[in-house]
């Protein structure tokens, strides 16, 4: 009696990504009440800087409580405000914030911005705008597991994976792009674009200029779209050292090429953003699409009727973000804290004999545990993941849930727990690897 | 380069419904700054009781500003809260509120409720769950113009209009249902259900028990779904007089039939609700689906990821709605005010020689202006509508924009303007009809 979509499982809830979460729910770690419980390291949440937001909230409580604007109640106005063009003050604050976060190299303007209830809705709306059912987007693997639901489920769009490998640090190459395109053609799919996440979830890395140019050239050649999900753009905590790449938005690269708007590429580049990660407020559901394409902006604006941001929340965040001094400080401090945490995780893992992909952004590390597996297979990965979940008591994400094509990689989140809990997690890992390394029958085939 | 959906016009923005709104934007009435401007009577907004909400907000400002729960900050918890099951406190308050609003005749439980960003998202999600592209729903006309966008655009679902007529007060009959079903079959459409709005927008009437039973029997016979959009359920301002029908929810009728759950009808009845009208807070985007069907609840919950309600707003409204004494008073007073307004509009129109369909709910009247038209046609309706917009200076909605099959009916809203403005609008109408009635060449063919 129900629709195929309602009956279908492509929302991804049953992947191991969710399985671990369920185990955690049954036995969650607590320092006093449940010290042997499972530690949640599978959530890409940013809990490091709530004290700063709370401080701002306390200082602005009167405005926020009574929804005051210039001293008078804005309650009526806000209660009624459901214009899908969004609160001008919020859009203005957002484009300024985005411009600042991208080093003032590209100027963002609010007429190209569409507000949506989270990046989740933004990504789906873009698919509805750019592709018809049966059309496809190329996604570099490993990718955010939520995309299987967000991009495909209700839109009928297909994902063609583009396999990245550890051999070059999971970088995007022109060859891999061509291969994916080829695969799509063999499957008789009309490839409408490439969707990337920059900085990457789950890699925690920013895309290099070279990667971005490969991507752009590819999209110019094939006459297809680029969607860049830049939800982690303000988490870049390391961009100055010579070995790390600073964050470069797709919008910056396309602007450089804009003098010769080859094959109208400018109108085929779209960005997704959200405050869920950078500000740590996923509960507030503030996301957006940014596009140079007027028709996409127009269609997405109309579609945003299905995913409008609460005007109360628009009001709160327009006040907060337009406090430029506060946001500047917040971002600086937040990045400092993220960096400290990430280094703590990397050290702890190294101490347990485990390496990570070198990263400079995000709320997680991409961790190499190939040497801890019984064999080079996804079965072994799953087995190791289950042991880490049940024996070690850590809920982390297996690479396979991110469609990684090489077994043995895991995503570990570091910003959703306390430092003490992180240290405990690392002790547990060390004890675990010690027991493995000392066990005679374990074959270390890849160290 | 874009999708068919992005290129398509089925979002309905270009109907006359929106045209009038644009004219209004150019020349909006203001008592001092623009006393000859257009008066907006095309918006189904409830602005009558903001003072009560503001009063509550002032008394609870400390809790709301600092997002306090039991005296401690709930900010962190809320900032992170994006569970698509919704805030238990809000769902609990909502089901109690809904139970009370429906005279405690049916008990609503929160496990059957799915929160969505407005009824707009709720209606679309239900279509995604119940129908595949190319399937159809029957809708009694006249209906809310937004449905053309909400039900059809992204889902690919079709609407089969079921024509109601003034001859029986636009009531739903078994014959009309069968006729629509027949039409669907002739068009080779797989009819998946009937969607009704009760109380009706644009009629302002509640469905009678007889209509509800016809509807239910029809759905049992044809083995199809019923969706009841009850977004105006707490606006019912007249339910006691012998000539008016009290509001009866579809859930109540189905419960009575439940002893013999004929053809599993219980699992095919779904309700949509929202706080946009009853509480007058469309900007806050709080809607919901209520269904007896576990699979629909499960699928809709997952789909609600694309349309989650801000946790900050969930918190505000859970506090407000769980104040039972306040909501009780609010609803009583709000209904009293709506009734007063409606009577003011009916009197004003009668004074101008214009009649209305007898109504007892909603934020509008369904107005009969057939006698003011040059001919019994939609061209004449459009002509009259344009004159009222441009000469009289009132933006009202033409019946054709609600897919009414009889020309000459208009929806006039009464709760989005002040009493003074309403009186002025009626004076303008009277002057207009006077000029028509006294003009020799006007043929009054239907008085
Ligand atoms: C790459 C990416 N895109 C989108 C999302 C969804 O974000 P939002 O909370 O804004 O919907 C996430 C959340 O984990 C993500 O990692
Ligand atoms: C019958 C009906 N359904 C749904 C809606 C949309 O309501 P919401 O603001 O909750 O999305 C409206 C608004 O006018 C309506 O009249």
Automatic annotation (TrEMBL), chains A, B:
<protein>
    <recommendedName>
        <fullName>1-aminocyclopropane-1-carboxylate synthase</fullName>
        <ecNumber>4.4.1.14</ecNumber>
    </recommendedName>
</protein>
<keyword id="KW-0949">S-adenosyl-L-methionine</keyword>
<dbReference type="InterPro" id="IPR004838">
    <property type="entry name" value="NHTrfase_class1_PyrdxlP-BS"/>
</dbReference>
<dbReference type="InterPro" id="IPR004839">
    <property type="entry name" value="Aminotransferase_I/II_large"/>
</dbReference>
<comment type="pathway">
    <text>Alkene biosynthesis; ethylene biosynthesis via S-adenosyl-L-methionine; ethylene from S-adenosyl-L-methionine: step 1/2.</text>
</comment>
<dbReference type="Pfam" id="PF00155">
    <property type="entry name" value="Aminotran_1_2"/>
</dbReference>
<dbReference type="GO" id="GO:0016847">
    <property type="term" value="F:1-aminocyclopropane-1-carboxylate synthase activity"/>
</dbReference>
<dbReference type="InterPro" id="IPR015421">
    <property type="entry name" value="PyrdxlP-dep_Trfase_major"/>
</dbReference>
<feature type="domain" description="Aminotransferase class I/classII large">
    <location>
        <begin position="39"/>
        <end position="428"/>
    </location>
</feature>
<dbReference type="InterPro" id="IPR050478">
    <property type="entry name" value="Ethylene_sulfur-biosynth"/>
</dbReference>
<comment type="similarity">
    <text>Belongs to the class-I pyridoxal-phosphate-dependent aminotransferase family.</text>
</comment>
<dbReference type="InterPro" id="IPR015424">
    <property type="entry name" value="PyrdxlP-dep_Trfase"/>
</dbReference>
<comment type="subunit">
    <text>Homodimer.</text>
</comment>
<keyword id="KW-0292">Fruit ripening</keyword>
<keyword id="KW-0266">Ethylene biosynthesis</keyword>
<keyword id="KW-0663">Pyridoxal phosphate</keyword>
<dbReference type="InterPro" id="IPR015422">
    <property type="entry name" value="PyrdxlP-dep_Trfase_small"/>
</dbReference>
<keyword id="KW-0456">Lyase</keyword>
């Amino acid at each position: 009696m129900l629709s195929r979509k309602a009956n279908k499982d492509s929302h991804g809830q049953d992947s191991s990504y969710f399985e671990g979460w369920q185990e955690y729910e049954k036995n969650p770690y607590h320092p006093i009440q449940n010290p042997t419980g499972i530690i949640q390291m599978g959530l890409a949440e940013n809990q490091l800087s709530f004290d700063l937001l709370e401080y701002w909230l306390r200082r602005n409580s009167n405005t926020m409580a009574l929804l005051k604007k210039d001293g008078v109640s804005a309650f009526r106005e806000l209660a009624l405000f459901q214009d899908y063009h969004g609160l001008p003050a919020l859009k203005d604050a957002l484009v300024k914030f985005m411009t600042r976060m991208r080093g003032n190299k590209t100027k963002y303007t609010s007429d190209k911005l569409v507000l949506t209830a989270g990046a989740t809705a933004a990504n789906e709306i873009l698919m509805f705008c750019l592709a018809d059912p049966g059309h496809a987007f190329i996604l570099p693997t490993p990718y955010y597991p939520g995309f299987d639901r967000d991009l495909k489920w209700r839109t009928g769009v297909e994902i063609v994976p583009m396999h990245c490998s550890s051999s070059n640090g999971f970088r995007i190459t022109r060859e891999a792009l061509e291969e994916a395109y080829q695969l799509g053609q063999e499957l008789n799919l009309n490839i409408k674009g490439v969707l990337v996440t920059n900085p990457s979830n789950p890699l925690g890395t920013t895309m290099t200029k070279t990667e971005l140019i490969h991507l752009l050239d590819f999209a110019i050649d094939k006459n297809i779209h680029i969607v860049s999900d830049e939800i982690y753009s303000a988490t870049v905590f390391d961009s100055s050292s010579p070995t790390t790449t600073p964050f470069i938005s797709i919008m910056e690269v396309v602007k450089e090429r804009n003098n010769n708007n080859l094959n109208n590429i400018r109108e085929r580049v779209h960005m997704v953003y959200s405050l869920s990660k950078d500000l740590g407020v996923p509960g507030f559901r503030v996301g957006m699409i940014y596009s140079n394409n007027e028709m996409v902006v127009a269609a997405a604006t109309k579609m945003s009727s299905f995913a409008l941001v609460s005007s109360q929340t628009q009001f709160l965040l327009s006040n907060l973000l337009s406090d430029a001094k506060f946001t500047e400080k917040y971002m600086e401090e937040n990045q400092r804290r993220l960096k400290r945490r990430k280094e703590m995780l990397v050290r702890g893992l190294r101490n347990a004999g485990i390496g990570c992909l070198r990263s400079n952004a995000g709320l997680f590390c991409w961790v190499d545990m190939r040497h801890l597996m019984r064999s080079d297979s996804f079965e072994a990965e799953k087995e190791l993941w289950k042991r880490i979940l049940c024996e070690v008591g850590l809920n982390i994400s297996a690479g396979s849930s991110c469609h990684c094509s090489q077994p043995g990689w895991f995503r570990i989140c570091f910003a959703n727990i306390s430092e003490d809990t992180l240290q405990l997690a690392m002790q547990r890992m060390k004890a675990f690897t010690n027991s493995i390394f000392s066990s005679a029958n374990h074959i270390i085939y890849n160290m």
